[in-house]
Amino acid sequence: MLVNASQVFAKGDPKNYIPEDEIERVASTFLGWKEEDRFSHIVDRAEIVADLDAIAAEARETDVALRQILEKIGV
Q: What pLDDT digit, counting tens, does each position of 11-68 carry?
């Protein structure tokens, strides 16, 4: 499960923090294994592997493009 708590923090001085009620929300969402729109998502291994494969493929394409640019400029 992935939980995105980036929008529930409070500004603090000197550091931001997650208020107690939001910590409870994160914990109950995680422990209850609940999906909540734009807050939590249950992922399975196949979804993670597919995402990693897509990222790796994109990285290979970027490397090829970068090598071509570097060759054109003589580096």
A: 999 999 999 999 999 999 999 999 999 999 999 999 999 999 999 999 999 999 999 9
pTM (2 decimals)?
A: 0.64
Q: Give domain limits for the chain.
A: 1-42, 44-75
CA atoms of 7 and 53, how far apart (whole Å): 28
Amino acid at 67: R
Q: Which two tokens stand for residue 9?
A: 């923090």
Cα–Cα distance list, 71 to 30, 64, 65 (Å)? 49, 11, 10
**Closest C-alpha to 67, from 52, 59, 56:** 59
Amino acid at 62: T
Task: Tell me the C-alpha distance between 43 and 34, whole Å.
Answer: 11
**C-alpha–C-alpha distance, residues 8 and 38, integer Å:** 11
